[in-house]
Amino acid sequence: MTMTSASIRRAFLDFFASKQHQIVPSSSLIPGNDATLLFTNAGMVQFKDVFLGQDLRSYNRAVSAQRCVRAGGKHNDLENVGYTARHHTFFEMLGNFSFGDYFKRDAIAYAWEFLTVVVKLPKEKLWVTVYETDDEAYDIWLKEVGVPAERIIRIGDNKGAPYASDNFWAMGDTGPCGPCTEIFYDHGEHIWGGPPGSPEEDGDRYIEIWNIVFMQFNRHADGRMENLPKPSVDTGMGLERIAAILQHVHSNYEIDTFVALIKAAAEATGATDLSDKSLRVVADHIRSCAFLIVDGVQPSNEGRGYVLRRIVRRAVRHGNKLGAKGAFFYKLVAALVAQMGEAYPELAEKQAVVEKILKLEEEQFGKTLERGLAILEEALAGLQGTELPGELVFKLYDTYGFPVDLTNDVARERNLTIDQAGFDAAMAEQRKRAQQASNFGADYNAAVTSSQQTTFTGYEHEFGNAQVVEILFE
Ligand code: ATP
Ligand code: MG
Ligand code: MG
Ligand code: MG
Fold it and tell me: Model pTM?
């Protein structure tokens, strides 16, 4: 079956509405109820208090298509973009939720019905995992759904640490937690990779599409696991990953939305090879950058704003590599609006503002980018060994506004690494100097208390006419 991304989103919401789920709109990328979280990174974020029983709603079943960003904090897929077929910094998570209502049996049956009846995936290409000790879920898959035992894999704890597993979810060190069951799709033997749990699982042959979490226990500080009186369900399926399957392509970057964005990026940069990895990076980054701005984030030197700035700069560097002359990134907003403006009217409404902010940011970085790149190239030409010296990484950062991840991205393209320890030492040195300077009045080393109140600390200094703050995640 071939379905557009928009029609898959619609089909998912409609299916769960037909199962008495309330359709709840996507919430902002800026979590309203969780000061510890950088960005909304899953559908359950807006329901956290409902799961905890602290927020009562008129419904106990919900369904949503949630915009998510994973580009910092605990879930960071920034480094995966351009390297895997399945990761984005921005993606949409389709999810159904039970707040103390249905549990394992229905959650599994609904997922299976959606995949094999509604969108008609071939059953023999689906694999499932369960948490090692979750016999209940295992038996539902085997005996009720009829998945053959060879395609049900039990996943245990990593390195023996209790409950540290891809198949065990926890809201935090204490509180709601429980086993997961995940559904994978086999894209075929022409693609490298092995089934989950195998040594080749990191390949892109078996792609995880749906994670179903059973919130079953309440974990106490002393490690005691108590059964929750009303267990709940939280699920998430990546829209782009299911779209790839239904559009008969392997990579998320080949689906309708991305084909359009990649085409726009090629036009804006003058690139001619549509399979260029940098086009994928740019197409990915315009989505996270535009939606972050829509949700109120502005490029800045701290917290969320600095994450946004880093993503923009990374996109600009890839655009430069593709041959862009002058600002190009902001030109992709129109193509994004054409793809996603209907599902997200707030994006269409703010198009002009998003373009303006991106253009300014791009132009500002453009001033130092070329010079920084020239210095980097020179250093690369004379490099002994395979590691970029920390001092060089620091100089690029300090003088030319190259975020460390950007330099690392360049290094990685040439199979080089960066000397992170050396960079940290140069940074500490700088901080010490700034501290001494502050004795003369200016307060350069004040801890950055960012608006999101996570434990960011940082320090500020100047390069060109811009202030830079490095953020240290603690
Ligand atoms: P993976 O193991 O592939 O990194 P995950 O286990 O980190 O995925 P979950 O946290 O379980 O992902 O999120 C639920 C679903 O959201 C995934 O099964 C996948 O379909 C989708 N998803 C997660 N991260 C991304 C991403 N960076 N880009 C696109 N889709 C994603
Ligand atoms: Mg992941
Ligand atoms: Mg996973
Ligand atoms: Mg998962």
Answer: 0.90
